[in-house]
Amino acid sequence: MEAEVKDQLVSIEKPGLIAPPNWEPVIMGILCNWCSYAGSDLTGTSRIQYPPNIRIIRVPCSSRVDPWFLIKSLQTTADGVLVSGCHPGDCHYISGNYYARRRFLVTKKLLNFVGFHENRIQFSWVSAAEGPKFAKVVNKVTEDIKKLGPLHLYKKENFEKK
Amino acid sequence: MNYTKQIQEIAAKLFAEGKIDVFVGYRMNGFDENQVPVLVNTADDVSKLVFTDKSVFNLVNYLKNEHTRRKRVGIVVKGCDSRSLNLMLTESQVKRENLYVIGIACEGVTDDSGQKMQNCVDCMVPDAVVFDEMLGTPAPPQNVPVSYKMNADIASLAAMPLTGRAAYFEEVFENCIRCNACRHSCPLCYCAKCCIDQETATLYNGANTTSAAFHALMTWSLHLAGRCVDCRNCEKACPSHLPLHLLHKQNESVIYENFQEHLAGVIPGDRGAFYKYSMKDPDDFIM
After folding, report:
1. CB pairs A-B closer than 8 Å
2. What is the pLDDT of residue B119?
């Protein structure tokens, strides 16, 4: 009996809540059009497998990502968020990702401060030529979030998993 | 700290010279020793004005309403208020030539119980940074950036385990009644249309729920990150007495420690940490 309880996946922020069997996380992937989105395309055309848990949204630049997007994703279906953009110095708009980098750090620290595990909000730099790296990143993020269990914090009522 | 007489004299002089149309100051609230903001329109009402340790509110908030907009205004600012005024000037919300600013070398204000307020104990910039006239003796000039004092509440909360923090903040957000007083009392929340309200029209439907409060307060605090001056007008206005300063101080400490920025509004023309970048910003949290 004890072993069974141990095997059950609990939500790390709310240890009282147990994940349903065969639970799969939903990850919101917000990718910049010029590097990471092309990179994920390359992953597909190179026939490299990556987990289907990620749901990809394309944005013009990583600095287009308002911290609000992350809050909204985490409040609805997502159990974690991955934001990906160009490497520093490679931004199509010269300096967009430098501005984004500051915002990401503050958002991540604030969400961690109010009780979200830090691995639920992840960032990466993936260039258009890094197909294998994108697969690796998605693999790592999915693995990380699978360990954390479902997210039960501040879910909008319609999205609270019963 | 009592500048009542000086402020009355200055205001009377300004009205006599015709330099201002309206003066924004404090008056006694009429039933106890606490004070409320007042807009004085004529020289006859100047005797209402007071300034003591109980002058807690940030009057810069009153520069964005219809009674002061496009008028020549006299205003009293403490250290923190002057920083928010600096940001409003930088963000082109008010015109400097329309203002006559009385700066205070602040010694800290007290709350209802007579204790010095927590943000005044931790205050790093007590003297007004924007002024036409200074009252009190300003401290000798310090090196900018001034040394950052870590907020004790932030340090103790950061040391708590994740589940404890999650439970603590869930209670905080649960007690929010979504009255938006925090937003209306903030001098730097001047957008005609707030993104939080746009959201209420659809997804959140103006609901008074924990998730809606979380969404509103987090978005609000992130839009103020790098600009908040810790005047705590939001906390004074909050009917549920939520510890709203925790969110702002957390952002401020992260910005200060990681980006080596100045405190918001200390330097004229400085728009805050999110409007610039450095090649040396930390990159280790990004894969």
Report:
1. 119
2. 86
